[in-house]
Amino acid sequence: MTVTALRNIGPKSAAWLRQVGLRSAEDLKAAGAVDAFMRIRRAGFRPSLNLLYSLEGALVDCHWQEIPEHRRQELVQAVEAASALLPAPRGRPAAAPVTTTHREHEDSAPSLDFFDSPDRED
Which of 4, 22, 33, 64 is placed for a possible disulfide with 55 were both Cys, Cβ 3.0 to 4.6 Å? Predict the structure, then answer.
């Protein structure tokens, strides 16, 4: 059975699942809701928690809104734990402490002679 035939899985969710290698109900069952959700996140998509609940609902064959609150909390905690293990996003430096520099004397201000020079051509 393909993922498109599963309850709660619409075209966009099915496309994301296919793109991360989860093409069948068996693939999704083997991965589980949390791993499937994390694969989608790691692939660069930005799924909401509703997808997580939808994946769980697909696995237990119920509407995603019927997932009990305690189970939703377990799923979110599992995603948070898995997210903490991910490396920092590429292209963004790790945050560093912020420092502020104050000039105490006017003498330390940079010279503006270059900008005021009458010999300068614009």
Answer: 33
